[in-house]
Amino acid sequence: MSNTLIYLLIGLIPFQFYCTFYKTLSISAAQILAIIVIAIAIVSLIRNKAKYEKSTMDYCVLGLIIVMFCSILFAHDRMTSVKYFLKWASFILLFFAVKVAVTRKEIIKKTLKVALITGFVVSVIGIIEYEIGVEKMYYMVNTSKLMPVVMEPDTLKDLSSTDSLNWTQWKDGKRHLRVPSTFENVIDFSAYLGLMLPFFLLALNYSGRPVRLIYMIFMTTMLIALFLTFTRSAYIALGLMSVVMLVFSLTKTKNRRNALIFVFVCLISMGFIMGTKGTSGLVRERFSDFIKKQDRVPFWTNGLKIFIARPLLGVGIANYGTGLEKHAGNDAPRSPAHNQYITMAAETGIAGLVVYLLILYFGFRYSYLIFDRSEGEEEKLIGLGFLGMWTWYSFQTMFSDHFFSDKFGMMFWLMVGLNAKLYELTVAKKDAIMHGNEGGVKV
Fold it and tell me: Greater confidence, 114 or 140?
């Protein structure tokens, strides 16, 4: 039952819709389902139907929840912090729920398949958006207008809120579409794809040629959708991830051909989209803006000012905007830090930053140990996929902050839970047996 709900949740996350209660409280169908999954896990533990084995990652994740709660006590706007704490804590608790629900390695493999299929469907929607010029899916419903791919500024005069959103990009006096698919913005969509793409090495390992061909089509579609987001950090993250996975694949996996196919498809897809008329110039312009104008540096500087002013527990979760007003000066641009590390430091202080870095460290460590010490080839490839996922995530969050965004946040903690559970089912269990303590878990 719990596993089926997790499959359903993965499929629902990108398509969640929101219902508003009491004018300000919004909750989505996916969030409701997440709460149900967490509740079932708690009941299973209470009734002793599920066995829970703790690892160091568990203590780090629990520590993050505690630090977030403590930051509320020092928040400038406590009501905002409380509201977002309750929502974000429910995302994080999915980590523990997954570890309770998943009891076998086969379930992890099935869950990853569901994630890959969902990622493909979302990518198709994104490509359709680009081709027919729909700037945002709900604009079709709310305004009955089909936006052209290249829009004159006057075209948007009736959609004033669009000017502040980041799914379009100015070039040559016109606005060019950047694909968000079903997500709130292009950054979240590109980060979501970064959770899926590393696991296509596992898909390419299947023996049946038709199955491999289908997954290659899935992978190429997701790569095209990724490039249509025109997200600089995602492009570089994809390159880093590909290099890391290629190097490890060539040294420790049996089927090295699949690693070469993976990188080849990445390069072919990138060449296709970069060679498309109208997109290559936009990509160059976005990278030029970052290198020449250094457009992220002022945001990082303001975030560091907040951290210096409140170094211990920060200004409180979801209080970054208030922190800018109080600690960064009146002339500071009212913008997010565009850096998850700085955001964590500003909102939760040094305590939150340390816990956050520990989660990244153990994510890398667990993934590498799965890859290095697992006996089965599929487990090795999944471990390599998680290694690629953490490489992507740790780099892209240097230039964006989507750690707790609704759709990406839920999917991220589900994947981290799968990562920790696979570590327990492979490396930790093997170590426990070797040390004569089959029920124990070691890092």
Answer: 114
DSSP 374: -
Tokens of 206: 């299947």
Give the three-state DSSP class for 54: coil
Q: Which residues are registered as beta bridge partners of 171?
A: 174
Q: What is the DSSP string of 91-118?
A: HHHHHHHHHHH--SHHHHHHHHHHHHHH
What is the pTM assigned to this prediction? 0.84
Q: How far is CA 157 from the centre of its chain?
A: 33
Query: What tokens appear for 126 in the block?
Result: 């994104």
pLDDT 10s digits, 267-277 = 666 666 555 54
Question: Which range among 35-39, 284-288, 419-423 has the greatest average pLDDT?
Answer: 419-423
Question: Which two tokens mark 188?
Answer: 């979240």
DSSP per-residue codes, 249-297: HHHH-S-HHHHHHHHHHHHHHHHHHHTSTTTHHHHHHHHHIIIII-TTH
Query: For residues 149 and 127, what is the distance between their CA atoms, to the nearest angstrom?
Result: 12
Token couple for 150: 């290249």
- E-strand stretches of 152-227: 168-171, 174-177
Cα gap 403→429, rounded to integer Å: 30
